[in-house]
Amino acid sequence: MTHSLADAQRLHLERLEREYACLLDALGYDGVLLYSGHPHRHFADDQEASFATYGHFLHWVPLAGVTRSWLLLRAGQRPALYFHAPRDFWHLPPALPDEAWTQRFAIELRQSETPPPLPAGRFAVLGEVAPATAAALGAELNPERLTAALDELRVCKSDYEVACLREANRRAMQGHLAACDAFRGGAAELDVQLAYLKASRQRESDVPYGNIVGINAHGGVLHYQHYDLKPPDRQHSLLVDAGHRVRGYCADITRTWSGADADSCFPALIDGVTALQRRLIAALRPGVSYVALHERMHDELGALLADQGVIRCSPEAAVAAGITRAFCPHGLGHLLGLQVHDVAGRCRGDGSPLPPPPEHPALRLTRELEAGMVVTVEPGLYVIPMLLDPLRDAPVGRDIDWTQVERLAPHGGIRIEDNVLITAQGADNLTPGDAG
Length: 436
Hints:
Layout: H1 3-27, E1 31-35, H2 55-58, E2 70-73, E3 80-84, E4 106-110, E5 123-126, H3 131-137, E6 140-141, H4 144-153, H5 159-184, H6 189-200, E7 212-215, E8 237-246, E9 249-258, H7 266-282, H8 290-307, H9 315-320, H10 323-327, E10 374-377, E11 380-382, H11 385-388, H12 402-408, E12 413-415, E13 418-423, E14 426-429
Helix pairs in contact: 1-4, 1-5, 5-6, 7-8
Binding site for Mn(2+) 2: 241, 252, 417
GO molecular function: proline dipeptidase activity
Binding site for Mn(2+) 1: 252, 334, 378, 417
């Protein structure tokens, strides 16, 4: 870890100490116990499922994947980390890094995964904790007001967090460029995935979410979850949605490339979605409604579809008739941080619900933007038969060039996604440029 990152992390932890002390005092708690969480075994098996450390624990302790550990936080006292490090010859026991942040904690290495006893007072315990365990501790389990307040504390990122997110983006983009090269060399989806992992220096269990590697029509399956073992006979397109973790913080980048057998109209649509995305990023600044920005995405998608001859009606008519929603059913983006879809995206600052509009139920971010937020911006354009086919016999079907749709169908879809920091001056794109 560089000296500058260590200094930024020190300031980050000092801020957390101040903010936690204020919140605990305001809500009448003497302290809070955070549980890292633990993996679960598959039913009737001895193998454990994949695991993600609880975000509020990870906010303090930058060890993604740490399990069965506890963090006790009380105002005016050093954070107490009860680190689960059992003696084991089957597995390599976990160990703490030789980094400056550990000096801020009172650390106890423990064989047991049971929670530490709590002193007298009013305490909360947060995380995946059994009600009986919380009751035995005499603590309130996941109280809603405290949890919402701590979620809000993660919305705007410190300089340390931004540095981690920027580095995660840098490493992820190395993987994306290698994935593109593999595809253009004739690789199958599995080979593209392996090229991504190798270039980004990750094992598959460490990625922040399952990488989406969709060749041809698979690019139109929004969360496509497989990797074909054989290259396709014809190479129309590649969509890769893949990330990286640095000290727990997630990159979430998507790119789309045309293949050697792409229809002549497809590269122009990729360019159009990319230019649309760049305009939306340029509009980011504090005070902007993300719902309004999502609606602008649909306006611009309507214009792009009209310009490329995919629809015959006006962009305004396409939006009003729901045509653009059939071509792009997901939201423009979401908050990003210790979780890919980070907390508090659909809440006001006071924790009260802020649901998406009924016509845009998939939108994950409904707030006004604030300096310090990190958001994804990911417009898309897809040919999804399940959504488009019902329009064929509807009155709006006359406004769609179905011949164009059929030409595009083998390409699946397009998504271009960057990770952007909101600053007082506007937008700082954390995602490096690419040569794709």
